[in-house]
Amino acid sequence: MDANESPIGAMVVALNGEALGRVEEVHPHFLLVAAEGEHGGLSVPVHAVARREDGRLHLSVNREALTPVDDEEAAGRRLDGV
């Protein structure tokens, strides 16, 4: 993945190797990651991204360190443009 390429759609992988989902939205300070088959998603601080490799974003943290975001909150962020 090129450094200038948008990460939207990229798979996000936790430090322990767990696939967390794909980047759905990019904001200045966080990424919204949606997991297939799950309601809501995860808010991933941009500083938690350790590297981009082979079309994936590898994090420096595991799922437990991330903030869950429910469907309503995610929809509100999209409507508010946050």
Radius of gyration, rounded? 12 Å
Number of extended strands = 7
- What coarse outline follows from CA principal-axis ratios? globular
Fraction in beta strands = 35-45%
InterPro entries: PRC_barrel-like_sf (IPR011033)
Protein name: DUF2171 domain-containing protein
Question: What descriptors fit this protein?
Answer:
82 residues, mainly beta, seven-stranded mixed beta sheet, 1 helix, 7 strands, globular
Question: What does the model show?
Answer:
With 82 residues, the protein is mostly beta strands. The protein contains 1 helix and 7 strands. The protein has one helix at residues 71-80; strands spanning 11-13, 19-26, 30-34, 41-45, 49-53, 56-59, 67-69. The protein has a 7-stranded mixed β-sheet with strand order 5-6-1-2-3-4-7. The longest helix has 10 residues, at 71-80. The N and C termini lie far apart (25 Å).
